[in-house]
Specification:
Structural class: alpha/beta
Low-confidence stretches: none
Number of strands: 13
CATH architecture of the largest domain: 3-Layer(aba) Sandwich
Strand content: 15-25%
Number of domains: 2
CATH class of the largest domain: Alpha Beta
Radius of gyration: 22 Å
Strand order of the largest sheet: 9-8-7-10-6-11-13-12
Order of helices and strands: HEEHHEHEHEHEHEHEEEHEEE
Number of helices: 9
Mean pLDDT: 94
CATH topology of the largest domain: Cytidine Deaminase, domain 2
Distance between the termini: 34 Å
C-alpha cells in the first residue's frame, strides 16, 4: 500500500529522534508529487525548532524551486511567512504524509495545519491523531479548508507516540543497555562512538539519569552530555550505602543534582528518565520501566549474558554506525 510505504519512511526517520524531542513528540513527514514519487522528508529534531511538516515542506520547496534563500531561515515562523509569500501554488498537486496529526495551535511555533492548508496540498495522510488536546484539531481544520485528509489509525505510528503520551500523563522511564553480540553487558566499553553520541544526546534531553552504586564505584563515570555539548541530567545513584569517593567525576559536574537513595521514590518528581546499568539494575527496575533501548555491538566479548525473564516487543531497529539500536516495549506479565 502506497500510503503505508511513505508513512514507514517517515517513521524510520522519526525513530532516530525518539526521546530527543522532549517535551514534544517525535514526528516524521514525507512529501510526494502527483505520481507519488518521493520529493522530500523532514523530522522534528528538538522542541522549539520547526516541526517535521515544516522541515519537509522547506526541503520540498528548495528541491522544486531551487530558491536557496529559504536555507537562510531557521525559525519556524520565518519559514511559514516565506512560504506563504513564495509558494506560488507548487504544492497543489503534492501529497504529504505525517506520522502524527499536524498541530493546530500557536505555541513556540505556528500551527502546521495552517501552513498545510495555505499551501493547498492535494492529499494529507496522517498516521495517528494527536492525544494532546492543546495541539489537536488539525484534521478538523484541514477538512474545513476542503483538503482531502485520510487518517490511517496506524498502530506503528501510535507506538512512536507512546513515550510522549507517558510523559504527558506522568513520566516516561526507559532503560538504556549496551550489549555485545553474544549478550554480555558488562566489562567496560562495548559499543561504538556513534552509539555513545546518541546516548549523550539522550542524556541532554532527560531530566534524570538513574544508575547503580556498584557501577559508579567500579566505572567512576562522568555521565554528562559532553559529546553533544549538552546539559548533564540530575543523577540518582541507587545504593544501600551512601559511601562514595567524592572524586568520582559525576559528582563535580556543574548545574546538576546528585541523589543517593535505596529506593526509587525520586522518580515521581521527574518526567523523562533514563536508567543505565547492568544485571542488578535491570532486575531492580523491572516494574518501573516501560521501554528498553538496546545498543548491540557486532563484536563478541568475554563474559556471561544475563538471564532475565523480560517479555519485550520490538518497536524499531536500525543500524547506527557499526552497532544496531533497538527500541523495545515491555509487555505485561
Amino acid at each position: 500500500m502506497v500510503d503505508n510505504h511513505f508513512l514507514k519512511l517517515a517513521l524510520d526517520k522519526a525513530w532516530f529522534y525518539q526521546g530527543l524531542t522532549y517535551p514534544n513528540p517525535p514526528v516524521g513527514a514525507v512529501i510526494t508529487d502527483k505520481q507519488n514519487n518521493f520529493v522530500s522528508c523532514g523530522v522534528h529534531i528538538k522542541a522549539g525548532t520547526p516541526h517535521a511538516e515544516v522541515n519537509a515542506i522547506k526541503e520540498a520547496y528548495l528541491n522544486l524551486t531551487k530558491d536557496k534563500e529559504i536555507l537562510k531561515l531557521t525559525d519556524s515562523k520565518d519559514i511559514h511567512n516565506y512560504l506563504f509569500k513564495k509558494h506560488n501554488g507548487i504544492f497543489k498537486d503534492k501529497n504529504i504524509y505525517v506520522t502524527l496529526e499536524p498541530c493546530n495551535h500557536f505555541g513556540k511555533t505556528p500551527p502546521c495545519s495552517h501552513l498545510i492548508a495555505e499551501l493547498g496540498f492535494k492529499k494529507v495522510v496522517i498516521g495517528t491523531l494527536d492525544t494532546n488536546k492543546k495541539a489537536s484539531g488539525g484534521v478538523e481544520f484541514l477538512r474545513q479548508k476542503a483538503l482531502h485528509v485520510e487518517v490511517l489509525k496506524s498502530s506503528t505510528c501510535r507506538a512512536l507516540l507512546e513515550p510522549f503520551t507517558l510523559w504527558q500523563k506522568g513520566r516516561f522511564v526507559f532503560f538504556k543497555l549496551a550489549m555485545s553480540n553474544n549478550g554480555v553487558i558488562d566489562g567496560g566499553k562495548i559499543t561504538s562512538k556513534d552509539s555513545f553520541e546518541l546516548v549523550h544526546k539522550l542524556r541532554d534531553r532527560c531530566d534524570l539519569l538513574v544508575i547503580g552504586g556498584n557501577t559508579v564505584r567500579i566505572d567512576r563515570p562522568t555521565l554528562d552530555a559532553r559529546m553533544c555539548n549538552g546539559k548533564a541530567p540530575d543523577i540518582l545513584i541507587y545504593s544501600k550505602s551512601k559511601n562514595f569517593d567524592s572524586n568520582i567525576p559525576l559528582f563535580s559536574v556543574p548545574n546538576r543534582k546528585v541523589y543517593i537513595a535505596d529506593n526509587f521514590d525520586l522518580l515521581k518528581e521527574y518526567k523523562h528518565i533514563m536508567i543505565e546499568g547492568g544485571e542488578g539494575m535491570l532486575k531492580a527496575t523491572t516494574k518501573l520501566v516501560s521501554h528498553y533501548l538496546i545498543f548491540r555491538s557486532p563484536h563478541f566479548k568475554e563474559g556471561t549474558a544475563p538471564k532475565l525473564a523480560l517479555k519485550l516487543k520490538e518497536l524499531y531497529s536500525s543500524c547506527l554506525g557499526a552497532d544496531r539500536f533497538t527500541w523495545f516495549k515491555k509487555l505485561d506479565g
